[in-house]
Specification:
The protein has helices at 4-33, 37-74, 78-83, 86-93, 95-115, 120-132, 145-165, 169-178, 182-213, 219-222, 224-248, 259-282, and strands at residues 304-309, 314-320, 325-334, 346-351, 360-363, 365-366, 372-379, 383-393, 396-407. It is α+β, with helices and mostly antiparallel strands and 409 residues long.
Length: 409
């Protein structure tokens, strides 16, 4: 049985890209081609139905994504998360929750803009913002420093390119089935140029993400993450194959019947759904570059524990006991292969859940077994805290690793 979180992520990504892609196609292709207001209005009425369907799927799946994640973070059943404020605790106390609330507001704003028939360009900008905020809850958005900024930028470009191409394919098929005459050929040529730019961007940013998350070529076959990513790459290659067929064969038959090209585009979009299903799975899995990691720290039953990783440094943080009150922390910092990371200084910072005063930072003490310890911690209250490990690196800026950690009552 497929993990519900995978299905929720899949539907949410598909719906969000469909909304953004439909509006991108309307602005970048349909409006310049259909110069008469009557023809454009007819197409827009049909395209708006797709945007409404996309929003009707994106909003509840976005909420379900938040609830399922809250169940994982808090280790609580659905009833407790929904009826006793667990989902709201995650929403206000984590980066994912903040992004989820912001994206919900954008989805409602887009619905309002559709209702009042606001300019299509404004609708497109809101829809694209709704898409690109997904990058901030991905692996790239979790990395600190300049590397994190670079990876975040790559994720943003990747998402926008996927929206303008994959998300726009159903709108392109609808256009071909709606218009007649030279408009189909003109739209095909414009969309083909957009597709070439987007595929190039997807290839470039995909290589960046693979380097960051997979690490070695062997990980494509030796780790679950790598194998799912390999399936995604294969489906993407099949999509490119259909796109080449569309450009070199079917598009040349225009302005004749556009139905074969429309059917081929829908087949291309169907493969894209497979790609998005893989994306939904990848977001729930440990990246291949870190799948071989096994913690060297014994974790007592009453401790709070989190593993944090970046391409350069990984950290295990254990707080014992993992509940409000006096506690101590044990930190282990490692390289990607699990060996101890050489450093002369480590600081541990704990920020309490809002609303609260800023947290404190403590210098850790090195222990003979390679771990670092911080004693006399005072965890004022239960909730989702933010733990930060600041690792000194000779000749470089310190590496900062942060993650949420649940402190029980």
């Amino acid at each position: 049985m497929i993990d519900p979180l995978i299905l929720v992520r899949f539907v949410h990504f598909a719906a969000t890209l469909l909304a953004g892609g439909t509006l991108c196609f309307a602005v970048l292709v349909a409006a310049p081609v259909l110069r008469t207001s009557e023809a454009l209005s007819f197409y827009r009425r049909r395209a708006d139905v797709m945007v409404w369907v996309a929003l009707a799927l994106a909003v509840p799946t976005g909420a379900a994504w938040l609830v399922l994640l809250a169940m994982q973070i808090l280790g609580a059943p659905l009833s407790e998360v929904c009826l006793h404020g667990g989902a709201w605790t995650v929403a206000e106390g984590t980066r994912f929750g903040e992004m989820a609330l912001l994206r919900l507001a954008l989805a409602l704003l887009l619905a309002l803009l559709l209702l009042i028939r606001a300019p299509c360009r404004l609708q497109m900008l809101v829809a694209l913002l709704l898409v690109l905020l997904l990058a901030f809850v991905g692996h790239g958005g979790a990395k600190p420093g300049s590397l994190g900024d670079f990876l975040l930028g790559a994720d943003v470009v990747h998402l926008l390119a996927a929206t303008a191409w994959l998300g726009a394919l159903p709108a392109f098929a609808l256009f071909l089935l709606t218009v007649t005459g030279d408009a189909a050929g003109c739209a095909t040529r414009r969309f083909s140029v957009i597709g070439i730019v987007c595929v190039s961007a997807l290839l470039a940013t995909g290589l960046v993400n693979s380097w960051n998350l997979v690490g070695r070529l062997q990980a494509f076959t030796t780790t679950p993450y790598g194998r799912v990513l390999a399936v995604k790459v294969a489906l993407f290659a099949a999509m490119i194959g259909i796109a080449v067929l569309n450009r070199l064969v079917l598009s040349l038959r225009l302005p004749g019947s556009a139905r074969p090209l429309a059917r081929s585009s829908l087949a291309e979009a169907s493969l894209g759904l497979g790609v998005l299903l893989a994306v939904g799975a990848l977001g729930t899995m440990e990246p291949g570059a870190h799948a071989a990691h096994e913690t060297g720290t014994a974790i007592p039953a009453d401790a709070a524990f989190v593993h944090i990783h970046t391409p350069e440094v990984m950290a295990d943080v254990m707080i014992e006991p993992g509940r409000a009150g006096p506690a101590h922390a044990v930190v282990r910092v490692m390289r990607e292969d699990g060996t101890l990371y050489p450093t002369q200084d480590i600081k541990l910072a704990l920020d309490p859940p809002p609303p609260a005063a800023p947290g404190a930072s403590r210098t850790a003490q090195a222990m003979p077994d390679g771990t670092w310890q911080v004693g006399a911690l005072d965890l004022a209250r239960a909730g989702i805290w933010t733990v930060r490990v600041i690792v000194a690196r000779p000749g470089e800026e310190p590496a900062v690793l942060d993650a949420p950690i649940v402190i029980a009552p």
